[in-house]
Write a structure and sequence with these properties.
By secondary structure, this protein is an alpha/beta fold. It is built from eleven helices and six strands. The protein has a six-stranded mixed beta sheet.
Length: 282
């Protein structure tokens, strides 16, 4: 019995060493490749998305890869829950021995869209991933939000989705045109979209010689400008050229190039924009 305990202790020490080495390698690679290895702080998500209402969904099996952040320990682990601090060692090894014997209570998570955040159980998530587990038992509480985070969410996505939530709060487009999603892959685009809608409204008022409500202008913009343009973007096959972008991304690029391409038809415009922005996104 004592030999088995010593063996388990030794194995946990070896796993800890591998995990810390992995965290170091991740940090070095992130420096050269310019990407973040940080967990998402839940308070950042709560603040930016104005999360208040939640409901409990009970005990579930959650994919470990979908756990993207933490409520309080986001500085102690990398985005893949490798330990970043040496002072975590004693507890980490103790939890690892518990996980290895499958004597592990469920963790507690918050859910926002398809992303999860650890309320209690950061060490269990870390050691479970080192064990090669794919899922973990968790008590889940889900926050209600008009925009959903993806299962691969990072802080950049949180910023973009926060801008989208603000855009919907100001325009109510999700209620006026249910099912129409306008999704960007870079921040700052929703402000550009609001400028475009305002310009469209001003042009309508000048043409008609009467005041146009923002809601009426928004619906006309959606039906006469955005939806037809997105239809042409899809029909043109442009999205195959830019698999990591969205129809909304290409729509904004069309607007940015409209002065140079103003006299082209909508369909031709799409093809010209595809060529124009190729050098910018590759």
């Amino acid at each position: 019995m004592e030999d088995r305990s010593l063996l388990a202790q030794y194995e946990s020490q070896e796993k800890w060493t591998r995990a810390r080495r992995g965290a170091l390698v991740q940090r070095i690679l992130s420096t050269f490749k310019n990407y973040s290895v940080d967990l998402i702080p839940f308070e950042e998500v709560r603040s930016r998305l104005h999360l208040t209402q939640k409901y409990c969904r009970g005990l579930q099996d959650v994919e470990l890869a979908h756990i993207r952040g933490s409520v309080g320990r986001y500085g102690d682990f990398t985005s893949t829950f490798l330990p970043r601090r040496d002072h975590l060692r004693q507890r980490w090894e103790r939890v690892d021995r518990m996980v290895s014997t499958h004597d592990m209570p469920p963790i507690e998570l918050y859910q926002v869209g398809d992303a999860y955040f650890v309320v209690d159980g950061n060490h269990r998530v870390s050691t479970a991933r080192q064990e090669g587990m794919k899922t973990i038992a968790a008590y889940v509480c889900e926050f209600v939000t008009p925009v959903r985070l993806s299962a691969e969410a990072d802080l950049d996505e949180v910023i973009i989705k926060a801008e989208y939530a603000e855009f919907l709060n100001e325009t109510h487009l999700d209620k006026l045109r249910p099912g129409q999603e306008i999704v960007f892959t870079s921040p700052g685009r929703y402000r550009e979209l609001e400028c475009l809608i305002t310009m469209f409204r001003d042009a309508l008022e000048e043409t008609r010689g009467e005041v146009i409500s923002y809601e009426d202008a928004l619906l006309l913009w959606s039906d006469m400008i955005y939806s037809p343009a997105v239809h042409e973007i899809k029909k043109s096959g442009a999205m195959e050229r830019f698999p990591n972008r969205t129809e909304a991304d290409l729509f904004i690029w069309m607007w940015q190039h409209q002065q140079r391409l103003l006299k082209q038809s909508t369909s031709s415009l799409v093809h010209r924009v595809v060529e124009a922005v190729s050098s910018l996104v590759r």
